[in-house]
């Protein structure tokens, strides 16, 4: 038994079942008096006569938590009993807890204590021993399990035990006969539904041939031949047939297989490839309203009951006789439910209700009854027992049902009670009562939507428009339609998923992928929610994406005043810069325009061939006729004397760039004797053209160095060799704060295409920034599939109050050094920085040097929000964000198919807040860090503190949260939804983590798996009740209703919320 199995035990459930076994045993006599004595013979742990809290696993007992106990009757202790041995399995993290040996009661004479030691795991059993004193004669033996060292659960899994040291010789047990091996189950066939069957009933009768030697069968039904996420998964079937009680989906392809198992658990599977397709769902027959059962109490003349209903929560009622309010099982209303009717003859729940007039009312009781038999409670009205109320079993303790009764109430205050009727097996949990008017006549059923056809695109269509017009026929009785379009016939991860369409056509605003096979289906829904799907197998293939027609930028009107014109047909020798006599090159114009007086160099439409750098003076603007109209083409520019392009630091120099806005500065690499100089006031704008580097023949496009108040907008950078644009004061000494920052920088509406570079030992960015304070960078589009990064620091960074937002970055997902290129990489972040509303496909890297901007509590160096990061090929081993800087907040973002989500290390050691994000993988990933949604690593010598992980969704990860290293404290994991986690929900190595009010749900039920030192409270299991429709970053994980299981189950952590408590997960209902 591993830890996950142990945590899965629902103690209340097993306690209840074992209690019933105990009662049954008492009724038939003391047939279970121990046959083994305390003289060296083995006593099987599962052969107890009574217990509290433990779980019987048929070959051992588990779920041994603090103060749980097991009772063994009539154990004879021979004279001289001095030892106790137990065969036990204990995980290392739970060693040191105790088993007390007591006589005749749980507080009786203590004859010995065994302190359990680690055996290496929950499935590794070893024999451990201790001494015993004071035991003789025949007694009832109690094993009492005790926590220790701060642990209150998981004492161990106990197989058997025995007492030793008796003067009486241990009798030689008779030889155990060798069991005759059971024959391997014989091959058999599956009968119905037959392979390829169509129009099969949505509740099909599955039948198969018998298998010789089989003692049971298991049936699995799934929408895929891998049988993942099965719709039906039942085992221990004794007969060769099964009919489900819950309908399968209509008009859907299913696969089914049966596995036969013999007495030795040998198995043989039938043909796993048999498939069938269900037909339409049957039209539901309206259920007649049941006639209320009359009560023996005389019924007063009924008066018109009040309109509507009133709900009374059981947990708010008056509880007595052993009933208690609790919240252990999911699916209940309000803040919990009432339990405690088992074995409590006086258990009672009293509801106080107030009605406006006397008369009959319909009363609905919401309850759960997990027994296999009918439960009975007395219904009492105003102190009079009305009847024994029979409550049919609900199958388990988290399935809730309604019981309708008609009761007579007095005018004003009444007491409605539910009391145990003294039968020990009558067990139910109560959720609420609903008091309502007499039932109104059932409405006339709305007809099921009629059949209809899908018109366009037709099945098998090719070269379809990437924005196709979907049309279909009208369905009679349909109130709305839902259209789903996907690249697979299972319609997972749809490209289009729109509902509530009232017409019979839809044209998307966003283009589908070009040259791609798509499937599409339409579902009609009537006014009551009944549905009928159209043919789900219609497919089409899109054609090539249309060549986008560039939106021509309006031809700017040259500003009045000092405007100088440059034209491809101009002349540098004879031109004057006038509109009728322009110059020919930008470089010549820049050398002849006066500085500092607001002059503008106006580039007319056409293609300019530039061979020299344009050295732009202070206060001079450059304005083109639009990105599509003015093209600056260059295969490289001349370099100043002494500049060596092979120098190691050439990548950091402005030399080789086309447009240079350079003011004097400290040049530590070129001239260590130069002085630090404050930035000059550029007061200039660059706009309206494209720079074409002619297949990376030109080093860089625009280089702004040590100038304030420079604006760059509506410029396209295309095929530059190293960098598209650079903004920074120039190189500096590392590991020291800058003396100055550039201010007044604005960069917006610019496009960068393949203008970064992989240099082997590093990659450099399309847009490069350093030492900026207050820069505003937005509406940036970057596409680089040749090795360049998106936006990256230059020199050693240093940024304050920089905003990067409303941009789209797509770079290569292959990088020989780091696995994939980086969308945004920034170093040495001071206060006030933000990245928001950014769409990208690869990771962000946020790094500070040791001790740089080591933010105190309440100071944020970077906010990241509204980021949507989706890996293009769905296969990444990299993190979404590297957090190696303090004072980082990441929220309201979506990350899909990254190897792991957040990676915190080094300077990312304190004041980190990660909240209201969605981390989703289509399949589990694996990597060196354990593929967790959150990975915290202090393998060095930092001190990690104040790290808060709140209200996130972690969906389909191998491990959700993994923490490793020492000196880690103040890590809080609260209000998160853990969905479809494959291995571990929390791995905490060397740390103490606060883990509270989290929710776990897997399609195939799994328990919490939490390893390491943690403080846990109020973590729950169950379906959160999310919508599960629409885009995953938008509506998919929102609670479907105000009563969804995740609603109001969280803990107040200081984030805004509605209702009585925060919801669990990304969205607040």
Automatic annotation (TrEMBL):
<feature type="compositionally biased region" description="Low complexity">
    <location>
        <begin position="185"/>
        <end position="194"/>
    </location>
</feature>
<dbReference type="InterPro" id="IPR006584">
    <property type="entry name" value="Cellulose-bd_IV"/>
</dbReference>
<dbReference type="InterPro" id="IPR008979">
    <property type="entry name" value="Galactose-bd-like_sf"/>
</dbReference>
<dbReference type="InterPro" id="IPR012334">
    <property type="entry name" value="Pectin_lyas_fold"/>
</dbReference>
<feature type="compositionally biased region" description="Polar residues">
    <location>
        <begin position="564"/>
        <end position="576"/>
    </location>
</feature>
<keyword id="KW-0732">Signal</keyword>
<dbReference type="Pfam" id="PF03422">
    <property type="entry name" value="CBM_6"/>
</dbReference>
<dbReference type="InterPro" id="IPR006626">
    <property type="entry name" value="PbH1"/>
</dbReference>
<feature type="region of interest" description="Disordered">
    <location>
        <begin position="539"/>
        <end position="578"/>
    </location>
</feature>
<dbReference type="InterPro" id="IPR013783">
    <property type="entry name" value="Ig-like_fold"/>
</dbReference>
<feature type="compositionally biased region" description="Pro residues">
    <location>
        <begin position="547"/>
        <end position="561"/>
    </location>
</feature>
<feature type="region of interest" description="Disordered">
    <location>
        <begin position="166"/>
        <end position="196"/>
    </location>
</feature>
<feature type="domain" description="CBM6">
    <location>
        <begin position="310"/>
        <end position="436"/>
    </location>
</feature>
<feature type="region of interest" description="Disordered">
    <location>
        <begin position="279"/>
        <end position="305"/>
    </location>
</feature>
<protein>
    <submittedName>
        <fullName>Carbohydrate-binding protein</fullName>
    </submittedName>
</protein>
<dbReference type="GO" id="GO:0030246">
    <property type="term" value="F:carbohydrate binding"/>
</dbReference>
<feature type="compositionally biased region" description="Pro residues">
    <location>
        <begin position="283"/>
        <end position="305"/>
    </location>
</feature>
<feature type="domain" description="CBM6">
    <location>
        <begin position="41"/>
        <end position="164"/>
    </location>
</feature>
<feature type="compositionally biased region" description="Pro residues">
    <location>
        <begin position="170"/>
        <end position="184"/>
    </location>
</feature>
<dbReference type="InterPro" id="IPR011050">
    <property type="entry name" value="Pectin_lyase_fold/virulence"/>
</dbReference>
<dbReference type="InterPro" id="IPR005084">
    <property type="entry name" value="CBM6"/>
</dbReference>
């Amino acid at each position: 038994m591993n830890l996950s199995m142990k945590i899965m035990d629902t103690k209340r459930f097993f306690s209840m079942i074992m209690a019933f076994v105990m009662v049954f045993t008492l009724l038939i006599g003391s047939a279970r008096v121990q046959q083994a004595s305390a003289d060296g013979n083995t006593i099987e742990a599962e052969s107890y006569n009574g217990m509290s809290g433990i779980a019987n696993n048929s070959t051992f007992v588990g779920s041994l938590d603090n103060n749980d106990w097991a009772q063994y009757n009539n154990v004879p202790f021979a004279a001289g009993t001095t030892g106790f041995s137990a065969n036990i399995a204990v995980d290392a993290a739970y060693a040191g807890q105790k088993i007390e040996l007591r006589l005749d009661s749980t507080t009786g004479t203590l004859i010995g204590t065994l302190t359990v030691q680690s055996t290496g795991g929950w499935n590794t059993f070893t024999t451990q021993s201790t001494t015993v004193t004071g035991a003789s004669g025949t007694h009832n033996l109690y094993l009492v399990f005790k926590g220790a060292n701060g642990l209150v659960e998981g004492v161990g899994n106990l197989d058997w035990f025995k007492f030793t040291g008796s003067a009486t010789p241990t009798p030689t047990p008779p030889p155990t006969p060798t069991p005759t091996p059971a024959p391997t189950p014989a091959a058999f066939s599956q009968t119905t539904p037959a392979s390829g069957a169509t129009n099969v009933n949505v509740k099909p009768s599955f039948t198969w041939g018998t298998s010789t030697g089989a003692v049971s069968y298991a049936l699995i039904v799934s929408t895929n031949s891998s049988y993942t996420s099965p719709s039906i998964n039942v085992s221990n079937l004794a007969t060769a047939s099964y009919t489900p009680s819950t309908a399968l989906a209509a008009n859907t392809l299913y696969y089914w297989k049966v596995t036969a198992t013999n007495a030795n658990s040998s198995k043989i599977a039938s043909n796993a490839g048999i498939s069938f397709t269900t037909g339409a769902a049957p039209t539901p027959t309206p259920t007649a309203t049941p006639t209320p059962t009359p009560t023996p109490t005389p019924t007063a003349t009924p008066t018109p009951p009040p309109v509507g209903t009133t709900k009374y929560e059981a947990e708010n009622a008056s509880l007595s006789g052993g009933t208690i309010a609790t919240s252990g099982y999911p699916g209940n209303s309000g803040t919990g439910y009432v339990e405690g009717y088992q074995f409590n003859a006086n258990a009672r729940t009293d509801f106080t209700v107030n009605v406006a007039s006397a008369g009959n009312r319909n009363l609905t009781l919401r309850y759960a009854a997990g027994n296999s038999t009918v439960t009975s409670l007395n219904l009492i009205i105003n102190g009079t027992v009305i009847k024994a109320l029979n409550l049919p079993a609900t199958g388990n303790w988290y399935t809730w049902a309604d019981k309708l009764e008609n009761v007579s109430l007095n005018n004003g205050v009444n007491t409605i009670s539910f009391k145990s009727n003294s039968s020990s097996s009558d067990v139910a949990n109560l959720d609420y009562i609903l008091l309502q008017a007499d039932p109104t006549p059932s409405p006339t059923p709305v007809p099921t939507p009629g059949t209809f056809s899908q018109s366009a695109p037709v099945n098998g269509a090719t070269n379809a428009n990437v924005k196709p017009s979907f049309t279909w026929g009208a369905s009679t009785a349909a109130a709305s339609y839902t259209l789903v379009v996907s690249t697979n016939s299972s319609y997972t991860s749809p490209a289009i998923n729109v509902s509530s369409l009232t017409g019979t056509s839809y044209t998307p605003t966003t283009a589908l992928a070009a040259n791609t096979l798509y499937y599409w289906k339409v579902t009609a829904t009537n006014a009551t929610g009944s549905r009928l799907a159209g043919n789900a197998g219609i497919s089409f293939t899109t054609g090539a994406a249309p060549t986008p027609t560039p939106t021509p930028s309006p031809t700017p009107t040259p500003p009045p005043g000092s405007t100088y014109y440059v034209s491809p047909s101009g002349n540098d020798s004879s031109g004057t810069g006038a509109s009728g006599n322009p110059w020919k090159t930008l470089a010549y114009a820049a050398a002849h325009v006066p500085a500092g007086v607001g002059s503008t160099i106006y580039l007319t439409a056409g293609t300019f061939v530039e061979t020299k750098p344009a050295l732009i003076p202070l206060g001079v603007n450059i304005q083109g006729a639009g990105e599509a109209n003015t093209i600056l083409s260059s295969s490289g520019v001349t370099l100043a004397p002494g500049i060596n392009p092979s120098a190691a630091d050439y990548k950091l120099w402005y030399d080789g760039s086309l447009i240079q806005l350079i003011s004097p500065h400290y040049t530590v690499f070129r001239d260590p004797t130069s002085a630090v100089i404050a930035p000059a006031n550029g007061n200039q704008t660059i706009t309206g053209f494209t720079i074409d580097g002619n297949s990376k023949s030109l080093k860089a496009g625009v280089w702004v160095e040590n100038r304030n108040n420079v604006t760059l907008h509506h410029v396209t950078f295309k095929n530059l060799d190293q960098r598209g644009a650079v903004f920074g004061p120039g190189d500096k000494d590392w590991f020291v704060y800058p003396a100055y920052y550039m201010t007044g920088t604005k960069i917006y509406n610019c496009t960068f295409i393949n203008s970064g570079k992989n240099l082997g030992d590093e990659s450099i960015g399309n847009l490069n920034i350093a030492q900026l304070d207050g820069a505003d960078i937005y509406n940036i589009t970057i596409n680089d599939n040749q090795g360049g990064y998106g936006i990256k620091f230059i020199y050693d960074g240093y940024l304050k109050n920089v905003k990067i937002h409303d941009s789209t970055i797509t770079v290569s997902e292959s990088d020989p050094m780091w696995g994939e290129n980086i969308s945004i990489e920034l170093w040495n972040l001071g206060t006030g920085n933000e990245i928001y509303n950014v769409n990208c496909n690869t990771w962000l890297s946020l790094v500070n040097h040791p001790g740089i901007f080591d933010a105190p509590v309440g100071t944020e160096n970077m906010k990241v929000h509204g980021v949507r990061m989706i890996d293009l090929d769905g296969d990444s081993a990299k993190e979404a964000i590297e957090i190696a800087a303090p004072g980082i907040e990441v929220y309201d973002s979506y990350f899909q198919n990254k190897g792991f989500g957040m990676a915190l290390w080094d300077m990312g050691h304190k004041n980190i807040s990660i909240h209201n994000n969605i981390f989703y993988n289509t399949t589990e990933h694996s990597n060196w860090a354990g593929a967790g949604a959150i990975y915290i690593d202090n393998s060095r010598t930092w001190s990690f503190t104040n790290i808060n992980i709140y209200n996130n969704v972690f969906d389909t990860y191998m491990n959700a949260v993994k923490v490793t290293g020492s000196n880690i404290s103040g890590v809080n994991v609260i209000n998160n939804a853990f969905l479809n986690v494959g291995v571990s929900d929390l791995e905490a190595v060397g740390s103490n983590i606060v883990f509270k009010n989290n929710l776990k749900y897997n399609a195939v039920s799994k328990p919490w798996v939490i390893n390491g030192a943690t403080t846990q409270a109020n973590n729950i299991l169950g379906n959160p009740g999310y919508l599960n429709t629409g885009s995953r970053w938008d509506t998919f994980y929102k609670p479907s209703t105000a009563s969804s299981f995740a609603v109001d189950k969280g803990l107040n952590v200081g984030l805004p919320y509605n209702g009585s408590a925060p919801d669990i997960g990304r969205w607040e209902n």
